[in-house]
Amino acid sequence: MTAEPSGPAASPAGLDAGLLGPGWAGSPAATATGDRAWLQALLDAEAALTRAQAALDLAPARAAAAVTAAADADRFDVRSLAERARGGGNPVIPLIADLTAAVGEEHGPYVHRGATSQDIMDTAAMLVAARTLDLVLADLARVAAALARLAAAHRDSAMPGRTLTQHAVPTTFGLKAAGWRSLVLDARDRLTAVRNALPAQLGGAAGTLAAFSAYGASDPTALPAAYARELGLRAPALPWHTLRTPLADLAGALALTAGALGKIAADVLTLSRTEIAEVAEGGGGGSSAMPHKANPVRSTLIAAAARRAPLLAATLFGTLTAQDERPAGAWHAEWEPLRDLLRLTGGAARDAVELTEGLRVRPDLMREHLGFTHGSIVSERLSAELTPLLGRARADELLSRLAGRARAEHRPLSELLAEEPALKELDLAELTDPSRYTGSAGALTDRALERR
Predict the structure, then answer these.
(1) Are strands 158-163 and 166-172 parallel, antiparallel or unpaired?
(2) Separation between Cα atoms, residue 409 and residue 75, nearest integer Å
(3) Banded pLDDT at 15 (limits 50, 70, 90)
(4) Dihedral through CA 225, CA 240, CA 203, CA 38, nearest 10?
(5) Is 377 within 8 Å of 52 (Cβ atoms)?
(6) Which residues, other chains included, contact 257 with Cβ-Cβ below 8 Å and sequence gap of 6+?
(7) How far apart, in Å, do the first and last CA atoms of the chain sit?
(8) Beta bridge partners of residue 160, listed in sequence order
């Protein structure tokens, strides 16, 4: 056994430095899902198995201590394990050989005793997921707090509401930020539920726990619970080798989280366009060719993650059709998509912290843009006000005609309305002020901010 390579050829996250993954490179999730992290999770699963058997008097305490002491990823060559994994189709098989050699002849027989490779791989996957989700949840808490501050600060900052890419009716930036926060809290709640339900895996060769009986367990069904306690995971009701609900739940929650953050990114990308500029990232990225650029890089990387996440989740959902008591290919197909999904979502959460905590908002430009349609943005309100005076058909005809003139003549709609004798008694200045037609945006924002 040799230590994992160090220096220029190695990376803190393992063998993959993330050259093509700027959205997750250097993030806490990158380290938590790297090759070394997976190797440590595999070793933790093996050590916990021996400790659980020792707790039930199925293995000597000294063996449990020896395996636990040897289960240090820095003592193993991850590159060698990866290359030798090809022989048996998974890295557990060569790892068992190396770990057995590391603990010595006396305690070697208690390494991996009664388990199958999938027990260790599935359990390690749950450990990696748990450790990564803890990081993601901490970042989501910061994102939600930043969005709460933005929503409160801009509760009444009127801006154009846009539907099908066009100005519709006025809204407020506070309500938009409150909506973003609501999505983040939805993601948090689902990730928390999944995190708390992540189960250990222990079933033996075909999910019957038979080997543990052969090794002297009077009640092998007690062992999975003891194993889960050692790991800090939930005790499984059944071995889930081909019952992949835990992976499907995890995939769905991660994809939802990436999508929730992607919604924020999509809006920021639109609102930060040069010709709109209602918001801007606190620190834009540069261009290799255009020195004047300040690109919305955080939003760009989050949007990229949100586009990839659903397809990765789909691969994990596809493994629900695993055949027999243990499948060929189905659980093998999960490892890389799961790691990518954890990495992408973790990186997106990291970038969302920077995005939301540094977002610059321009209420002055939002207010200016409300006038781009020369007052037509409040035509819904005007229709409601004019219908009792003129009737629905005449009111709609008048507003359509005058809105067309306002566009063609670049004149305020209020000015054209003032020329209509039937409307002389109306307070047209108030009726055509977009900032006074934001409906219940303020109250809805307040209600959204009550959620904790």
Answers:
(1) antiparallel
(2) 78
(3) low
(4) -80
(5) no
(6) 136, 140, 187, 190, 191, 345, 348, 349
(7) 50
(8) 170
Exposed / middle / buried, residue 215 (Cβ in 10 Å: 0-12, 13-18, 19+)? middle
Measured between alpha carbons, how far is 445 from 174 in angstroms, rounded to an integer?
A: 6
Which residues contact residue 153 at a Cβ distance below 8 angstroms, ignoring those fewer than 6 apart? 174, 361
**Tokens 């993959």 map to which residue?**
16
pLDDT at 9 over 60: no
pLDDT tens-digit map of 320-377: 999 999 999 999 999 999 999 999 999 999 999 999 999 999 999 999 999 999 999 9
Q: Name the amino acid, one letter, at 328.
A: A
285: β partners: 295
Buried b (16+ CB within 10 A) or exposed e, 305-333: bbebbbebbebbebbeebeeebbeebbee
Residues 6+ apart with CB under 8 A from 62: 107
- Mean pLDDT of all residues belonging to the chain: 93
Q: Which tokens belong to 16?
A: 């993959």
pLDDT at 292: 54
Catalytic center residues: 287, 326
The H or E element containing residue 161 is strand 158-163
State the pLDDT confidence band at 10, using cuts at 50, 70 and 90. Answer: very low
pLDDT for the residue numbered 405:
93
Confidence of residue 287 (pLDDT cuts 50, 70, 90): very low
Q: What is the CA radius of gyration of the chain?
A: 29
Question: Token pair 């009986």 is at which residue?
Answer: 213
| C-alpha to C-alpha distances, 25 to 32, 64, 146, 254, 358, nearest whole angstrom | 11, 36, 23, 18, 20
Does residue 293 carry a pLDDT above 60?
Answer: no
In the predicted structure, residue 295 carries a pLDDT above the cut 80? yes
Structure-token pair, residue 400: 């359509």
On the question of pLDDT at 286 being above 70, the answer is no
Average pLDDT for 59-72: 98
Q: 409, 451, 434, 344: which is closest to 156 by C-alpha?
A: 434
Distance CA 90, CA 368 (A): 61
Structure letter (DSSP) for residue 160: E
